[in-house]
Design brief:
This protein has 151 residues and is α+β, with helices and mostly antiparallel strands. The chain is 40% helix and 16% strand. The chain has a 4-stranded antiparallel beta sheet with strand order 2-3-1-4. Bound molecules: inosine-5'-diphosphate and magnesium ion. The site of inosine-5'-diphosphate (IDP) has 9 residues, from loops.
C-alpha cells in the first residue's frame, strides 16, 4: 500500500452508453484519488483478449470480448493511497446482485455481463493493465490538495 499506488479503472461500453462516465469519475475525484491518465478508446477484440488473458477458456469469454468491443470505453489511471484495493471496494462485487448499494455496480448495474466498470484486482495486474492501455505513459503532476488528503 502506498500513496503513489496506481490502479487501472475503465468505464465499460454499457457505462459509456448509459451516461455514467461523469458519475464514475466524480466518485474517484471526490474520494481523493488523482487522475493521471484518461482516454476514450474503441478497443479491438485482440487488445481486449490481452486485457482479459487470465479469463481465456471461461465459458463467458467470447461474450465478454464481444461486449467489451461493442463500443468505446473510458480508460483511466487513478493514483493514491491503497488505490487498487479501494478502487475494488468502490466498484463492488463482480456480480452486481451481490454489490452493496453505494458501490458503482451496486448503484447502477444488475447483470454480471453488464457491470459497467472495470478495476484492477492487484498492484501487479494494475501495472500490467496500465502498460497495455497507456503505452504512451501517464502524466505526473503535483496537486496542492495532496497535503489535505494524506498525512
Ligand atoms: P472483475 O471485473 O470483478 O475483476 P473478473 O472475474 O475479472 O471480475 O471478470 C471480468 C469480467 O468478466 C467481469 O467484470 C464481468 O463483466 C465478466 N464476467 C465474469 N464472470 C461472468 C459470468 O459468469 N458471466 C458473464 N460475464 C462474466
Ligand atoms: Mg478482474
Amino acid at each position: 500500500m502506498s500513496v503513489q499506488e496506481r490502479t487501472y479503472i475503465m468505464v465499460k461500453p454499457d457505462g459509456v452508453q448509459r451516461g455514467l462516465v461523469g458519475n464514475i469519475i466524480s466518485r474517484f475525484e471526490q474520494r481523493g484519488f488523482k487522475l493521471i491518465a484518461l482516454k476514450l478508446v474503441h478497443a479491438t477484440p485482440e487488445h481486449l483478449e490481452k486485457h482479459y488473458a487470465d479469463l481465456k477458456g471461461k465459458p463467458f469469454f467470447p461474450g465478454l470480448i464481444k461486449y467489451m468491443a461493442s463500443g468505446p470505453v473510458v480508460a483511466m489511471v487513478w493514483q493514491g493511497l491503497d488505490a487498487v484495493k479501494t478502487g475494488r471496494v468502490m466498484l463492488g462485487a463482480t456480480n452486481p446482485l451481490a454489490s452493496a448499494p453505494g458501490t458503482i455496480r451496486g448503484d447502477f448495474a444488475l447483470a454480471v455481463g453488464r457491470n459497467i466498470c472495470h478495476g484492477s484486482d492487484a498492484v501487479e495486474s494494475a501495472e500490467k493493465e496500465i502498460a497495455l492501455w497507456f503505452p504512451e505513459g501517464v502524466t505526473q503532476y503535483g496537486k496542492d490538495i495532496d497535503t489535505w488528503v494524506f498525512e
